[in-house]
Amino acid sequence: MRTVILIPALVALAACQKADNQPGPGGVTVGEAKALDEAAEMIEDQRLTRDDLPQPSAPPAAPLPAKPAS
Questions:
Q1: Which domain does 17 fall in, by range?
Q2: Structural domain tally of the chain?
Q3: Residue 47 to residues 26, 37, 41, 63, Cα–Cα distance (Å)
C-alpha cells in the first residue's frame, strides 16, 4: 500500500524541477548554469596562493632588441 502512494509522489516531485534545456539565469540554460557552477567550484577548490607557486631559480632573460624596419 505504501509503495502505491510513494511512487506517484516521487514522480510528482521529479516533475517540479526545470529541465536542463529550459531557460535559466543570465541567458543560459539550466544545465549550462549547473555546469558553470560546478566548474567555478572546481576552480575555487584548486586556487593556489603565492607561496604555492614555484619560484624561478634564475632571473628572467633580457628581452630581445627590436629589429629595425627595412
A1: 10-44
A2: 1
A3: 25, 15, 10, 30
pTM attached to this predicted model: 0.41
Cell (9 digits) for 43: 576552480
pLDDT band (50, 70, 90) for residue 1: low
pLDDT in tens, 44-65: 888 767 777 777 777 767 777 7
50 belongs to a structural domain? no
The helix or strand, by DSSP H or E, that contains position 3, with its residue range, turns out to be: helix 2-15
Judge whether 63 lies within some domain: no
Residue 16: inside a domain: yes
Q: Which residues, listed in sequence order, are joined to residue 70 by a DSSP beta bridge?
A: none
**Residue holding cell 524541477?**
17
